[in-house]
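Why should sequence recovery work at all? Because a backbone constrains its sequence more than one might expect. Tight turns favour small or flexible residues, buried strands favour hydrophobic ones, and helices have their own preferences. The token representation captures these environments compactly. In the example below, the structure is given first.
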């Protein structure tokens, strides 16, 4: 793998990734900023963020294969890495069927997309794959630098590491709420988590992890929300993030929920040093 992500990064919607956010993330010691929300097109925001920093890596989490073809993304990749070698990781994935017309045979579509990136000269070590289930995790290990699982737990991280083996990157995302009031924190976490409970790929993965249909019903059980959006004081949340590292993650992308994520990132940066 070319890019060096460090152990901890920030995950946020790509529209929030400004030069100032990138500079702040680097100053706080985060190794990477992950651009969520299916960024596409020419990925111009990546150049802007990297130009404002010296060592930070920007990773896409993820470019949706149904949205932009490999030629367009390959051209963006070449432009970025030519200017900022070793500081960009192209994360790609199939998204979810509920948001995509023509979403059929996603595994075959992922293989074809990776073939297209090969044809565009995107090296294996400069791309990653959104992966939850065993089949796509194996594909990530075989055809990319590794896997970027989303909406998971340390138990999933442990299983994913067993499937990937010792070499490939494993970089899960983890939502957190820095609030010691459990009811208030769960309300914040549930607001985000509930969106995913209607999406078949996430539901299937959560059921594989041992959650039940009752946990996934409505807006999600407290048990489910507590696992997917860690909450508590800074030390408690930091311990939950370290649990992914202990389970085999190389890097954890933290998504702070709430009205003031910047203060959360500052607190966690200090706690996780």
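From this structural description, the recovered sequence reads:
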């Amino acid at each position: 793998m070319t890019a060096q992500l460090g152990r901890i990064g920030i995950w946020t919607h790509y529209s929030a990734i400004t030069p100032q956010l990138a500079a702040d993330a680097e100053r706080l010691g985060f190794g990477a900023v992950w651009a969520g929300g299916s960024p596409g097109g020419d990925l111009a925001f990546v150049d802007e963020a990297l130009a404002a920093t010296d060592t930070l890596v920007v990773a896409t989490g993820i470019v949706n294969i149904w949205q932009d073809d490999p030629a367009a993304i390959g051209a963006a990749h070449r432009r970025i890495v030519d200017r900022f070698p070793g500081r960009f990781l192209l994360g790609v994935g199939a998204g979810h069927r509920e948001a995509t017309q023509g979403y059929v045979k996603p595994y075959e579509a992922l293989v074809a997309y990776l073939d297209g990136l090969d044809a565009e000269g995107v090296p294996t070590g400069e791309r990653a794959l959104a992966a939850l289930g065993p089949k796509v995790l194996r594909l990530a290990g075989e055809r990319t630098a590794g896997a970027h699982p989303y909406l998971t737990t340390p138990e999933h991280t442990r299983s994913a590491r067993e499937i990937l083996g010792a070499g490939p990157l494993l970089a899960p995302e983890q939502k957190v709420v820095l609030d010691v009031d459990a009811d208030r924190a769960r309300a914040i976490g549930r607001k985000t988590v509930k969106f995913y409970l209607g999406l078949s790929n996430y539901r299937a993965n959560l059921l594989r992890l041992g959650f039940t249909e009752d946990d996934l019903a409505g807006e999600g059980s407290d048990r489910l929300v507590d696992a997917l959006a860690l909450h508590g004081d800074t030390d408690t949340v930091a311990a939950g993030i370290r649990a992914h590292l202990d389970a085999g993650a190389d890097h954890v992308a933290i998504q702070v929920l709430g009205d003031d994520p910047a203060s959360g990132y500052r607190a966690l940066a200090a706690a996780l040093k």
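A few observations help interpret the result. The chain has a mean pLDDT of 96.
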